[in-house]
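> @MW can you paste both from yesterday?
MW: sure, first one:
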Amino acid sequence: MPHLVNALLSVLVVTGLLAGPSLRPRLALFLGVTGSVIANHLVWLTAPVLWSHVLTPWAASVSGALVAVAIWSLLRTSPTAASLVDPDAAALQDVAGDPADQEEPVPSDVIDLGTAGRPPRALLGHTGTRS
């Protein structure tokens, strides 16, 4: 039982340290918990005697969280997820970031909203010609 408590404590501490300074704390919580739990489970399945040492769950939690973040980063920066599996399947590229392939915005009429301290000309009765 103390080994399980040690492993759960390692998962909670590593996840908290990952999510604390993160700009996206919910994603960091998800990646930290997922990576830490999976890594601890794999170590427990492959080497239960080694897992019963005090520092092994901590090392597994840290390495699992780092692997989860690395995989997430790889998937986020790849052009498409299909290109990781089959490069030929990724024939369609995302062109949202390419300014050359985007349409020009439709021009709109300019509305005189006035400036600070001066209302628009239409409210003052000006027609644009001098009297």
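MW: second:
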Amino acid sequence: MHKSDANYTGIRFDTKVGPVVPEMPTGDRPYRLVHEMPEPDDTGRTEVEMRRFPQIYKPRGVAQRLNSSSLADF
């Protein structure tokens, strides 16, 4: 999925706790692993950042780190 208004491209994975998206930014921002909430919480949040990776990693390195953290266990 590509969200041009949020400046990232990502892949949504359905997990036990709901959708999780590894975000690959288009600018200088870091890579993020985000849990998307089905409904906004009491403060209005619709996502929770789970992990952040600096852009010193190439996309393949980020994918390997996500794979080693066992995304399916979330």
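> thanks! The first strand starts at residue 2 and ends at 3.
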